[in-house]
């Protein structure tokens, strides 16, 4: 059964009466992009809590030298699953969820182009997530413990027997399939389902970033799925593709894997660049600065990121280090442009320090550290020292946790009123921000120091007397502070649903189309669409006294 | 408002404090190659601090200068500042110049670090295995092997003469490991099927910690070793004493 | 549409060029093939868009900066399915088939059967 949707003419024709399921069934059978988006985000956040608990166990184990809490085998499983869950299920899943929820609203479409495929992509994601979690616990012969990039020969059947890695591979394949499906959906929706007047050059920056993210996923995931499939054949059916003893080549796996792996980190950060670019102008009460520059920078980051994969392999001695070093350094240019555009957006504004803005500022401060240390890592000779050390661990947590995760909290505080019609608390939100910001920097800043002092990553234990003790203890304390912040956030959500204070359709003075409909939006999103005359249709609608696109 | 400014500057201060310890947090590099990497690191570090200071300054300035004040009209809009072509060109050009300069420096250092001496003073064959190391000196006919690794077990010792180029051939026969000596600012992956060749020329005597830095399974954390750099007379004495002993042990 | 077309062609050309540069610098096969296929993929979509543009798809209301909402009144955007249980079913069946690959024996044929059933079910439903 399906509903044919026309562009709304003057008064919308009511949909014909048909039976909609209710309750839980309505959620698990839904094809509505808003519900799927919410399912994605809620599941991703649940995965965040799981991954966070694993990280907590890691930090407790590493608080002081010696083994206290877990065995080496368990520790190895902990960081393997922590990495996989946080990257692919939490940050990746949340990015997909936001794209699902926002892209149709922002382009003025009633739903995604392929709603049933969209539901399928969510269930693949959920199924893959369950398999990945099962790979840690329900695996005879030990959980998956080969690190999230599963390098053979370590991930081969000889060195990692048991079904843990097999379940992990299948889970990853499902998550990859889910990414492909939702990528196709996002691109088709943004290209073909825009409302009248919503030209490509009026798309909100978030939607642009979602398009580029989707394209990266479409190009980067298939090689990784191929790598996983070949690895599975090696493990289960006696293949020797990556097995040097059988004439295979483990380096090919690294190429295939990082051809996904590096675009993946941009898949994990571009949607959140988009979030920040939505939040900053709204709370500065301005239009975004240098719109075209933002789009170009996003495209440049996306394109360049396809040519940098082997900077993860500088220390293998078998790749062209200068080529990858140059490509990686070039990415600093569009990223720099984005930073200056963000500053230009705040420049001359009337900045309100509401909670989404606080998290956006936290993003800017943290991500900059991730960025400048990224430039250091882009130099092959420096990488000879810092690669695979805690310096690297600190670097990518500054981009992913200090960057993307802070943007996720900005997004939650920003769009929660739109999605649920009720606001989160400003007072509690400020505390959540303070705890997370302080806790985050306390956790990861010392890891730069530990890494430069020579601490390798992925070790269950470290010797005393090498200067590792203090940084690690500080790190563990910081992780404790962050977990208090996350718990407080859960309290905030819980009380928001109890209070049910109506948010209004446009609580922040937003720019893009989702602020021109009700909170939450009706089925098929818009009863009437405003005329679209600039990249800020909702703002134009609420400020009829100004020329559309005023201030150009 | 001052508090907000200092909040923004706080990470920078710690960066500065790290810098004051003299080595920007990094060991100075006890080999010729490591010294090169250290010089490069200093340049990158200064560039990073300069860029971070500029950007943090601009962020702090916009947050303070353009905050909404109590006296402001709640509905007031920001200034119509949304495009400045000249300014945009400047901030495309500046990062581009910086990365081109950094790349050039990094490229040159990379060539020197990866360079192989045609006539190394000593050759060492290093085999990484799960979970330990086998250091053999083919010209001296002696071998040093790890004890079975575990918590609290000391790793084997690689002895190198000072001021002589040591050619290291690194292999692995099981999984991927990595040979890392933080004091030398150098690491290289040991990949089964690949023979890795690189030179280190120690310039400081002393004992340096080493570790496997590529995750290699259960006892990865305990796959440590030490490098002892000694004057060449002492190296020869050690070699002749050890050659006799290891002949019996091996 | 034109913007999308230019974007995809730009990406495709970039990928092919980068792959070629990489090939001449390194002669490394895996990376070159990956980069060339990265170049070809957007070109496939670009070719499709070009056909649409030739068939007059370039003047859709969405691509006209001055189009008013009523310009597209009555334009059929698409047909949107109501609730469907097949996506969940298909994902569960795939998880089962996957578990069959790992745990073997009975689960595998059962899983494959259920996957086939789910695919058929979803196809039939989307014909409505």
Written overview of the protein:
Chain A contains 16 helices and 1 strand. With 552 residues, chain A is mainly alpha-helical. Helices cover 40% and strands 24% of the residues of chain B. Chain B contains 4 helices and 10 strands; from the N terminus they run αααββββββββββα. A 5-stranded mixed beta sheet of chain B has the order 3-2-1-5-8. Chain B has a 5-stranded mixed beta sheet with strand order 4-10-9-6-7, with helices on one face. In chain B, α1 runs antiparallel to α2 (32-65) and α2 packs antiparallel against α3 (85-114). The longest helix of chain C has 26 residues, at 29-54. The chains are: A mainly alpha (552), B alpha+beta (250), C mainly alpha (128). Chains in contact: A-B, A-C. β1 (2-6) of chain A pairs antiparallel with β1 of chain C.
Give a brief outline of the structure.
By secondary structure, chain B is an alpha+beta fold.
Provide tags for this entry.
heterotrimer; B: 250 residues; alpha+beta; five-stranded mixed β-sheet; 4 helices; 40% helix; 24% strand; elongated; disordered N terminus; C: 128 residues; mainly alpha; 5% strand
The total of beta strands of chain B comes to: 10
Strand arrangement within the widest β-sheet of chain B reads 3-2-1-5-8
Separate helix tally of chain B: 4
Tally the helices of chain C: what do you get? 4
First-residue to last-residue Cα separation of chain C:
29 Å
> How would you classify the quaternary structure?
heterotrimer
Sheet of most strands of chain C: none
Structural class call of chain B reads alpha+beta
Largest sheet of chain B: 5 strands, mixed
**Uncertain parts of chain B:** 1-22
- Please state the average pLDDT score of chain B: 87
SS elements, strand count of chain C: 1
Order of helices and strands of chain B: HHHEEEEEEEEEEH
DSSP strand content of chain C: under 5%
SSE map:
The complex is a heterotrimer of chains A (552), B (250) and C (128).
Chain A: E1 2-6, H1 23-28, H2 33-62, H3 72-107, H4 115-137, H5 164-192, H6 205-236, H7 250-267, H8 270-284, H9 291-305, H10 321-346, H11 355-377, H12 380-386, H13 390-420, H14 426-452, H15 469-499, H16 537-542
Helix pairs in contact in A: 2-3, 2-4, 2-15, 3-4, 3-5, 3-13, 4-5, 5-6, 6-7, 6-8, 6-9, 8-11, 8-13, 9-10, 10-11, 11-13, 11-14, 13-14, 14-15
Chain B: H1 2-20, H2 32-65, H3 85-114, E1 122-129, E2 132-137, E3 142-145, E4 157-161, E5 166-172, E6 177-181, E7 186-190, E8 196-200, E9 206-212, E10 224-230, H4 232-249
Parallel strand pairs in B: 1-5, 4-10
Antiparallel strand pairs in B: 1-2, 2-3, 5-8, 6-7, 6-9, 9-10
Helix pairs in contact in B: 1-2, 2-3
Chain C: H1 2-26, H2 29-54, E1 76-81, H3 86-103, H4 107-127
